[in-house]
Amino acid sequence: MSHTAPSGPSSSGQREPHDLNWLGTTVYVGGTMLRAAANAVEATAERVSQVAAASRTAFERELDPNIEEARVLAEYPDREKAPQDSQG
To answer: Global pTM?
Structure first.
């Protein structure tokens, strides 16, 4: 006598959320929220890693002796003393 597994959607062990009892629904919602939180943490970690790499690259670029230092051409502490552009 041979036994075969029933075919159909219930054979995989997965159920639709609306077919679950209150405990199953709670576990399903909790798992979904945990997955969303994990995805958010992973995305944040990836972004922090990208920013850190870009910061390091920029820092190392500034150590290049061939790059000239910035110079202040003019400084105006008050807006009234700044030269006015002639618009006309």
So the answer is: 0.48
Cα–Cα distance, 12 to 35 (Å, whole number) = 21
Q: What is the CA radius of gyration of the chain?
A: 31
User: Which tokens sit at 57?
Assistant: 């690259």
Return the residue matching tokens 């110079």.
Answer: 71
Q: With contact defined as beta carbons under 8 Å apart, do 10 and 1 qualify?
A: no
Which of 27, 4, 2, 7 has its CA nearest to residue 17?
27
The pLDDT of 37-48, averaged and rounded, is 97
User: Measured in whole angstroms, how far is the alpha carbon of residue 87 from the centre of its chain?
Assistant: 45
